[in-house]
Amino acid sequence: MSETITVNGVSQPLPDDVRVSLLDFLRQHLGLTGTKKGCDHGQCGACTVLVDGFRINSCLTLAAMHADQEVTTIEGLGTPEDPSALQRAFVEHDAFQCGYCTPGQICSATALLEEIRSEWPSDASDDLAAPTLTDEEIRERMSGNLCRCGAYANILAAIRQVAEEDA
């Protein structure tokens, strides 16, 4: 019996080759090409996905390491017909230019909002017991996701809008 991984709510058999990265498994084996391969060294954040709700760089981990875990990619957050709140806000605020980094940015921002709801502090937190979502807090928490086009101000505005809607 082969091990499985759940991707966007669907159980999938893990590849026989245990050397396959989670990123390559998603893109090449499952055809989920929303998650991007940027640097392939964990430095740019283009490959960010959620594993059991936590954000990770999928280029730095093997698919086999995530047996029996839930992976959520950009395709699992929303659809063109029913986008997530963050996906809508990114469009409304023009928080992308070329769009290459956008899937990783949105997955990371999804985790960021959950971290704030769970009151997890960061290095920029003003109050370690109950951090508030300041611009500095957003920048710190999103610092692992790079945008070559420089849409950072619009990304921040999109995240802030969704955070305020959730409040």
TrEMBL record:
The record's InterPro entries line, in alphabetical order, gives: 2Fe-2S-bd, 2Fe-2S-bd_dom_sf, 2Fe-2S_ferredoxin-like_sf, 2Fe-2S_ferredoxin-type, 2Fe2S_fd_BS, Aldehyde_Oxdr_Iron-Sulfur, Beta-grasp_dom_sf
**Keyword Nucleotidyltransferase part of the UniProt annotation:** no
Could you tell me which residue ranges the 2Fe-2S ferredoxin-type domain spans?
A: 1-77
Sorted keywords for this record are: 2Fe-2S, Iron, Iron-sulfur, Metal-binding, Oxidoreductase
Keyword Iron-sulfur assigned to the entry: answer is yes
Against Gene3D superfamilies, the record matches this protein to:
3.10.20.30, [2Fe-2S]-binding domain
According to the UniProt record, one GO cellular component term is: periplasmic space
Q: What is this protein called?
A: Xanthine dehydrogenase YagT iron-sulfur-binding subunit
Q: What are the protein's GO molecular function terms?
A: 2 iron, 2 sulfur cluster binding; metal ion binding; oxidoreductase activity, acting on the aldehyde or oxo group of donors
Q: Report the source organism.
A: Tropicimonas isoalkanivorans
